[in-house]
Amino acid sequence: MTDRWNPAAFKARVDAVLHAFLDEESRHLLAVDGTLAPVAEQLRTAAGHGKRLRAAFCYWGWRAAGQPDSDALVRAAASMELVHAAAVVHDDLIDDSALRHGLPTVHEALASVLARGGHPRARPAARSLAMLVGDQLMALAAELFAASGLPAAYLSRARHLWAALARELVAGECLEILHTGGPPDTGTSLKVVRYKTAKYTVEHPLLIGGLLAGAGQGLRDAYSAYGLPLGEAFQLRDDLLGLFGDPEHTGKEGLDDVRAQRPTALLAETWRAADDRQRARLRGVLGRGDLDEGHLREVRALMRELGAPQRVERMIHARVEQATRALDTAGVPPHARRALRDLARQATDRIH
User: How many CB atoms lie within 10 A of CB 107?
Assistant: First the structure.
């Protein structure tokens, strides 16, 4: 790969690594027992979607530290996508989401297979199997990283960050669970965003790539100054798309966040600006299990009336500006700076 950043070519490289690795792991499962075929299939396809942003941030954490393109590094970077796949399986299970990328989530797909096979407790069994698929994906992420082909001395530089990545990802998920259904608060919502998504989406992959490359403390500080606000902007965009995006494009149900009363900044900003009458309208909708498109239109209209989407857009813009400014004073090589700016746009200017 030349210094000219080609996202499609990079995605193809990461996809090839993941497909080969997960195909092999699926065969190992089937060798244990043929009845594991539905689990093996979900494991094989769990990381089949996405723009490979997390792998790209890891790759450019390496390149920005002066290292050349490397197939071994691409394999290590691909492990970041398995972390994401594991998080998605667990998140969909916790949220009881039915769709992801327009397809049944892992627990829903497994429930259908088990029901067709006459399993007496198809749904609870499927949920248990999905939890184990997520666990296995996280374990496989560490295995792919360790077996990437990079020298052991390089890998040891980043080993401690894996523990921090897992700890903070779990902490963020726990924070969301604990605050779901509670009083909406923007500060709390942004803390959930930081730990549940921002760190493992941008900051940690960048830092892992930098540590593998032997990046100094100054450059690693710049990675955090870029990665944390950009990761927050990424999730804030995701929250906006979740409620205002077209489900045909987002692949998610627009009612999910409202039905669960999740602690999003969008909801918190709406609540903060609402008067007593408007809060009463919100309380009449949030958390209801029988929500329909009429309720969704009502919530969207109230959010627009109170200017909440516009304030979240401003939060996104401010964070992207903060992130890209951090690159200007970090001594990042020009080709890496261009690529990281492109990735910032790709992560936050999504239409679906």
Answer: 26
Nearest CA among 167, 165, 177 for reference residue 54: 165
For 215-237, how does the pLDDT look when each residue is reduced to its tens digit (9 = 90+)? 999 999 999 999 999 999 999 99
Q: Report if pTM > 0.85.
A: yes
pLDDT tens-digit profile of 10-62? 999 999 999 999 999 999 999 999 999 999 999 999 889 889 999 999 999 99
CA separation for the pair 295, 20 (Å, rounded): 44
